[in-house]
Amino acid sequence: MEKPGVWLEGPDGGRILDVRASAFDIEDYNEHFFSHYGLERLENLLRENKRKILPAAGVRLGPPLARPSKIICLGKNYAAHAREFDATIPSSPILFTKATTAMVGPNDDIVLPDSAREVDGEVELAIVIGKKASRVAEAKAMEHVAGYTILNDVTDRRAQREGKQWFRGKSVDTFCPMGPWLVTRDEIKGPQSLKMKFVQNGQVLQEDNTANMIFKIPFIISFISASITLLPGDVIATGTPAGIGSLRNPPVLFRPGDRLDLEIEGLGAQKNKITSRDSH
C-alpha cells in the first residue's frame, strides 16, 4: 500500500519520514492536502523530535502525489521537437491529456500491450499545482505552483497515428512514470533553466534545457486556467525536447528488456525497465 513520505538525505543514504505515522489525518498528497496547508504541515513535521523514520533501502517509490483530477500535457513546446515532428511551430499551446490511471512510480516497469510495436518515451518537466487556479494572471501564476517532478510521456505511436488523436496512445496503463520526488517550488530557484536527459540502453536520445521551452511556465498556467480550472494536485507536463526515438532514422523504439534513465536537474532520476504483459 502506498502512503505519503518525505525523502531525507543522510550520510548513510536515503531515509524516509513516514508522514501518516506522524500525522494520521494526512491521507495522501491529494487535493485536500494541498488546499489545506499540507506543505506547511510537512515543514512542521520535519522539525518535530518524535517522528517515524524508515530506511529507504528496499522501499518501492510510488508516484510522488496521489492520482490527480487531471494530467494536462503540452505538445510541441520545444522548437527543435516541433520541427522534427511536423516542422510546424505552434502559435499557441497545444493541449492534450493523459489518463490518470497511467501513473506509476519512478522505477516501476513500463508494460507494453500485446499490440504495441511503436512505443517510445519523452522526458518532461511536470508542474504540480498547489492551489486552485482559475483565470490566473501570468504575473501571479507561480503562486499556484506547489512544485515540480519528472514525467515520462510514454506513447504508442501507432495508436496515436491511427486514431488521429493523442489520448489513447498516451494513456495506456503504466505509460506515465512520475517522480521520484515532488520538489517544492522554493527548492527550484530557476525552473526555466534545468538540464534534462533521456537515455535508453545507454544511448542518449534527448538532452536539452527547460530554457528552450517555447511557452514558459507562467504563461502556460495562465493560458490553461483562462478556460480550465486547475485544482490542487493537478499536473501539467510542459512538453519534451527533440530526439524522441520514433522520429529517429532508424527509429529507436521500446522493446522488452530495455532500460531507461531519465534525469532533470534538481529533480532526481527515473530508472525503468520495459516489459511485456506476458511477463506479468
Mean residue pLDDT: 95
- Low-confidence spans: pLDDT under 50, at least 5 residues? none
CATH superfamily of the largest domain: Fumarylacetoacetase-like, C-terminal domain
Global structural class: alpha+beta
| Gyration radius over CA | 18 Å
How would you sum up the major sheet? 6 strands, mixed
Query: Given the C-alpha coordinates, what overall shape results?
Result: globular
Number of helical regions? 7
- CATH arch. level architecture of the largest domain: Alpha-Beta Complex
Order of helices and strands: EEHHHEEHEEEEEEEHHEEEEHEEE
Helical proportion?
A: 10-25%
CATH class category of the largest domain: Alpha Beta
Residue fraction in strands: 25-35%
Q: Work out the number of β strands.
A: 18
Strand order of the largest sheet: 5-4-16-9-10-13
- N- and C-termini, Cα separation: 19 Å
As for the CATH topology of the largest domain, it is Fumarylacetoacetate hydrolase, domain 2
Structurally, how many domains make up the residues?
Answer: 2
Produce a short descriptive summary.
The protein has 7 helices and 18 strands. The protein has helices spanning about 20, 30-35, 40-45, 80-85, 155-165, 165-170, 215-225; strands at about 5-10, 15-20, 55, 70-75, 95-100, 105, 110, 120, 125-130, 145-150, 155, 175, 185, 195-200, 205-210, 235, 260-265, 270-275.
Structure description:
This protein is of the alpha+beta class and 280 residues long. It folds into two domains: 51 residues, no CATH class; 209 residues, Fumarylacetoacetase-like, C-terminal domain (Fumarylacetoacetate hydrolase, domain 2). Helix content is 16%, strand content 29%. It is built from seven helices and 18 strands. The strands form five sheets. A six-stranded mixed β-sheet has the order 5-4-16-9-10-13. A five-stranded mixed β-sheet has the order 7-18-17-14-15, with no helix packed on it. It has a three-stranded antiparallel β-sheet with strand order 1-2-3. A hairpin with a 3-residue loop joins strand 17 and strand 18. It starts with a strand and ends with a strand. The mean pLDDT is 95.
